Amino acid sequence: MTNEPDDWGPGEREALRDLARDEPPPPEAQDRTVTALRRAGLIGGRRAKPWTWIAAAAAVAAAFAGGLLTGRPPVPAPSDARPQFVVLLYGAAAADAGEQARQVGEIKAWARGLARAGHALSGAKLAASEYRLGDGDAGTTAELGGYIVLAAAGPEDALAMARTCPHLRHGGRIVVRPVDPT
To answer: Is this model's pTM higher than 0.85 or not?
Structure first.
C-alpha cells in the first residue's frame, strides 16, 4: 500500500522514488522553525531547573498509577475464601441491535460496580450459537445469554446482588448457582 495519489503519472512516481531519502533539512530551516515555535510560546528559551523535571516525572508517575487503578476494577485475591456463585442470565434478548447494546451496557455497568465492591470476579456475554453433546442434544432451552461469577458471603448475599441486575427489568430470568469447590 502506498500513500501516492491515484492520479499521479509514471514520471511523477519515478521522480518521487529518485528523491534522496537521507538528506537532512537545511540549517536555516531548523533555525526558522525554532524561532517560530519560540514566538508562539510553544518552546522556551531558558532551561528548566532540576526540581521542575523531578516534579514533572512524579506527576507522570502518579497519573500512570491512577490510570492503572481506575482502569481495572479490583479483583479479590485468589485466596478469597468466600463462596462463589454463578449468575446465569436467560432470555429477554432485545430484537433491536441498538436496544440490545444498551441493555448489555447496563449489565456491564452493574457488574463493574460489583467488581469495584470486590464481588464480581468474571463474566461474559455469550454468543447466540451453541453446541450440544450428550443426551440433551435434541430440543432447546431458554437462551442463556451471559454469566457473572460472584464472590459472596453466602447464598442470601448472592441472591440480593442478583436481584439488582438490570436484566430483570428487561424481562430476563436469572438463575444463581453456587460453585462447588473441587
So the answer is: no
